[in-house]
Amino acid sequence: MQMTSKIESFVMHCGEMGSRWGFNRTIGQMYGLMIIMPEPLSATTLSETLNISRGNVSMGIKELQSWRLVQVHHIPGDRKDYYGPAGSIWEMAQRVFEERRKREMDPTLSLLRATILDEPANEQEAYAQEKMREIHDLLETITHWAAELQTMSPEKLNTLMKLGAGVGKVLDMKAKLLSDSSRK
């Protein structure tokens, strides 16, 4: 399969983004290609199109499967496995966020919980624990908020994101009204 320059540009960018999402460049490229193709791709097609070894393709597919981002398709009469994205773009974003939470936030929260429960040995540790408690509380809030977002439909999430800074303005207006009414 020959990639057009636009498709190649997107696939290469997905490779760069992959490292920011938590997997390597090659896996990002593989996933980027799978996302924009109308039909699932074989390991051979992925290997030849991206000019990577079959071994790298195999390891990349296993990694993407561990993230629950790809699914295997079978074509009647063909023994090869074909791979495509598992779900919609919204579902992909939710899975990446969920996996990053499991791999990054959860271990950090566990460490912080254990550390802030210990009795501080001195003032320096007491100060450090207070800062760790603040980090813990922030991460807990983010984790709970993200969990609530994941229960929303894509339509509701899209509406919420479009509200953007408007929500902040409404909250500022509410605070001002409350402040004005308490002065009376």
UniProtKB/TrEMBL annotation:
Single GO term (MF): DNA-binding transcription factor activity
From which residue to which does the signal peptide run?
none
Q: Does the keyword Transcription regulation apply?
A: yes
Sorted alphabetically, which InterPro entries does this protein's record hold? HTH-GbsR_regulator, HTH_MarR-typ, MJ1563, WH-like_DNA-bd_sf, WH_DNA-bd_sf
Which positions fall inside the HTH marR-type domain? 29-80
Transcription regulation: is it a keyword of this entry?
yes
Q: List the keywords (alphabetical).
A: DNA-binding, Transcription, Transcription regulation
Kindly give the Pfam families that the UniProt entry links to this protein.
Answer: MarR_2
Q: Which family does it belong to?
A: Belongs to the GbsR family.
Q: What is this protein called?
A: HTH-type transcriptional regulator
Task: Look up and give the organism this protein is from.
Answer: Dasania phycosphaerae
